[in-house]
Amino acid sequence: MRIMGSRIFIGERDLYEIAKELDTPFYIYDLEDIERRFMFLKMLSERYIEGLGKKLIILYALKANSNPHIISLLKDLGSGFDASSPGEVLQARICGVDPSRIYLTAPGLSKKDLEIAYREKININIDSETQLRYLIDIGFEGEIGIRINPGFGEGFHEYTTTGGKYSKFGLPIEKLRDVVELAKKSNIFVKRLHAHIGSGIMDPNTHIRVLEKLLEVSRNIESVEEIDLGGGFGISYEDDREYPFQEFFEKLSRIIRDEDKITKILIEPGRFLVARAGVLVARVTDLKDYGDKKIVIL
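User: That's the sequence. What structure does it adopt?
Assistant: C-alpha cells below.
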C-alpha cells in the first residue's frame, strides 16, 4: 500500500479508480503486503531457529481477519492457523487447510464444539479441566496442548490483557499437575504448553518472559515437546512502529538452544500480518454544518 499525494495505491491500482468501478463501501486488502510480512517471519525462523535443529510453526490467528482470500494465501505460503471457535475451524477447512495445520484454543468451548474439533481431526489446546473432561466423555485419545495462565498478562488496553489474576483464560499453573494426571489415565498426553497473555504487545521481553515460564513448567511434564507462545505481536496505531521481531528471534534462539526436549516453537501472529494491509473504501454522500463542526457522512 502506497500513498502518493492525495491518492492511495494497492499494488499498482489507484483506489480512486477502483472506487469508480465498484459500489462502496468495501474493504480491500493488499495481499502482497501480507505475503511480505509472512515471508519476513519465515526468513527470521530459518536464520535463528532451524539451525538449532528445531522448528518454528507460524499459526495465523484467524480472529484477526478470516477473509477466505487471506486464508487461502497464507495456506499456500505454508502457514498454520490458530482458531478460537468452531466457526473459524470450519472456515479454514472450507478454504482447503489441512486439519493438521489448524489449532483450536478458546475458553468456554462446549462438548459440541470439541466434538466438531475431534471430528475434523485438528489440534486441540484445552483451556480448562472441564474441556479435558468433555474430551474424555467423547472418547478422545491422543495428544493435546494445555493453555495455562502464567500468572501475568499484558496488552495495549486492560480489556485486551488475557493473563494474570482473575483472568478467565487458561488453566492456573497450580492445577496443571492434576489435569495432566487425569489426562494420562484416559490415554491423553500433553504434548504442548500454550499461553497467550494479551494483544498489542510491543516489547519482545514480554514474550520471552512467557517462554521462560512455559519452559520452566515443561521440565516437570515428560511428554511436553512443543511450546506455543500465543500471539499479541503488536503494531502501533499512533505511528509506524511495529513489533521488533528480529530482537525477539535473537533472544528466542539463545534461550531454546539448549532445551533438548523442545522440538517446536509456535507463534500466533494475526494483527501483525494483516492490520496494515486493509483499507475501508467509502464514498462521501453528504456534508452537514452544525455551528463550528462540519460532519462528513459516508
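The mean pLDDT is 92.
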